[in-house]
Design a protein that fits this description.
Order of helices and strands: HHHHHHHH
Distance between the termini: 36 Å
Helix content: over 70%
Length: 164
């Protein structure tokens, strides 16, 4: 679960690399990747030496959060993105992730994680499907509650409407 949280945080900030590639600045992507690797190794060594339970998971979460902070700084300095705008753009997805976690943990507590492989596949499939639905419902519900501003949710809704 810690690794899933770490990768969720990393996913939130992966766009910075794509922005720099689009701007023709691959050197900055290399620097970001090096910083990410260095932070990960440093946190792994620190947590493993301190004998913390789930040290690898905590190291990955710490590295992801440190990388998130560095991406905020880089976006602010190099792209002119204000801190407030970066944070305000994330509150709906963060709450959506909370809804996803609640849905998945609820399914797993009802169905259990053990049993024969068919039951495990059913639990996995239901966790994925209902987790995705919970995330989408939360994010779109909050977006609607906010008056449907022209953010990423509006683009997603437009794409879905074009598929019909």
């Amino acid at each position: 679960q810690l690794l899933a949280c770490a990768w969720a945080v990393v996913a939130l900030w992966s766009n910075t690399s794509y922005v720099f590639l689009a701007l023709g600045q691959p050197g900055r992507v290399t620097i970001l990747s090096g910083l990410q690797a260095a932070a990960t190794v440093a946190f792994l060594i620190g947590f493993l030496m301190s004998d913390v339970q789930n040290g690898v998971g905590w190291a990955m979460v710490s590295s992801a959060l440190a990388f998130a902070a560095s991406n905020l700084y880089i976006g602010h300095v190099n792209l002119g993105i204000r801190w407030q705008n970066a944070i305000l753009g994330l509150w709906r997805p963060v709450l959506g992730c909370g809804a996803l976690v609640v849905a998945v943990l609820s399914i797993q507590s009802v169905m259990g994680l053990g049993g024969p492989p068919p039951r495990q596949f059913l639990t996995l499939g239901l966790s994925i499907a209902l987790g995705a639905l919970a995330y989408a419902a939360a994010v779109l519900g909050l977006w609607r509650f906010c008056g449907m501003p022209p953010d990423a949710e509006a683009q997603a809704v437009d794409i879905v409407r074009k598929w019909r």
